[in-house]
Amino acid sequence: xxxxxxxxxxxxxxxxxxxxxxxxxxxxxxxxxxxxxxxxxxxxxxxxxxxxxxxxxxxxxxxxxxxxxxxxxxxxxxxxxxxxxxxxxxxxxxxxxxxxxxxxxxxxxxxxxxxxxxxxxxxxxxxxxxxxxxxxxxxxxxxxxxxxxxxxxxxxxxxxxxxxxxxxxxxxxxxxxxxxxxxxxxxxxxxxxxxxxxxxxxxxxxxxx
Length: 209
What we know:
The protein has nine helices and no strands.
């Protein structure tokens, strides 16, 4: 690589401000999407869904379970993606916790159509995850695992997350006694989330890192 090419590559790297702004925006969109799904009484996939499922089986809060479930995946991300990845992932997880707690101070979702929540809420979560992924940030175990597998084997992150979501939703349905309609809407939300990553998060389509 010559000097000109090296300078061009360096100019594409994200600045600290860009990383911070992306984490703030991505986490905000993800939290808003989750709150929309919660207001509609839906369940989604990912580590949040797994933590919610386990909270019905063991006497621990969803927040504690979410953090505990993410620990081994943060270590996996650190070995494969680097220490900077772990630092940003920890910061993003903490930010999501703070935003979720503080959200009622800014707005309350009184009523939302279940199908609208599934499509829009799921898409917002997907866009939030996409923003974070573009800046090498993962907020959940499945998201981190999907990014690691994509980097190591070229597996599409969205499809990997979709398989994990399907397993979690199928396990949650009998435990939570979900009706067919609510289950279908929950599946729709998971598809909407993964669909954003399938369409937009592909190697070669984005040069900044």
